[in-house]
Design brief:
This protein is mainly α and about 170 residues long. It has one domain. The chain is about 55% helix and about 5% strand. It is built from six helices and two strands, in the order ααββαααα. Strands 1-2 form a two-stranded antiparallel sheet. Helix 1 packs across helix 6 and helix 4 runs antiparallel to helix 5. The longest helix has about 35 residues. It is elongated, with a radius of gyration of 21 Å. The protein starts with a helix and ends with a helix.
Length: about 170
């Protein structure tokens, strides 16, 4: 399937956010979030084997991991402890790029909304995750650089293919 310049650059941003997340975990004295079985169990225990948004019971077999702050060019959430929470597949599919707080208000029953919000905020604080890390300059530069390099390589290979075809077909009139 053909990929556009933005697709390639967006993939680079996700890799960047994973790598920065690993470093950020290590800098905070945490084992990088992979997730390993023990890390998944820690999430499940902390959130009482419930989807952090709607409260549905989940297990290792049914867990879906959500980034509170999405891993994309605009929000720049890291793949790191404090930004990854357990949820059910339905909530993960439905949340998409919405902010977690807004989504929680949509999903949680009114009598559990406050306690769920508090649990998420306590989890983020317990991992010392700063949701306001300012990585925009680095990410914006990476996005532009990767797109430009990718297009340069594509044009280079296009020219090589063009020459190869010319040689194969021989002189044209």
């Amino acid at each position: 399937m053909a990929r556009s310049k933005s697709d390639i650059a967006n993939s680079a941003i996700r890799i960047f956010l994973q790598d920065v997340g690993k470093y950020y975990d290590e800098a905070r004295g945490l084992e990088p979030f992979v997730p390993k079985v023990g890390q998944v169990d820690e999430l499940l225990d902390y959130f009482r084997n419930e989807c952090c948004y709607c409260g549905t019971q989940i297990s290792r077999q049914t867990i879906s991991l959500d980034h509170l702050i999405p891993m994309n060019k605009s929000t720049l959430g890291l793949h790191a402890w404090g930004n990854v929470v357990p949820c059910c597949q339905s909530c993960n599919n439905e949340k998409q790029q919405k902010g977690w707080s807004e989504f929680l208000e949509m999903k949680a029953e009114s009598d559990t909304s406050f306690s769920r919000r508090k649990r998420i905020e306590e989890f983020v604080a317990s991992k010392k995750y700063d949701p306001n890390l300012n990585l925009h300059e680095y990410a914006d530069n990476l996005y532009e650089d990767v797109g430009a390099v990718a297009m340069t390589l594509i044009h280079l290979r296009y020219k090589q293919a063009e020459e190869g075809i010319k040689q194969l077909l021989g002189p044209t009139k």
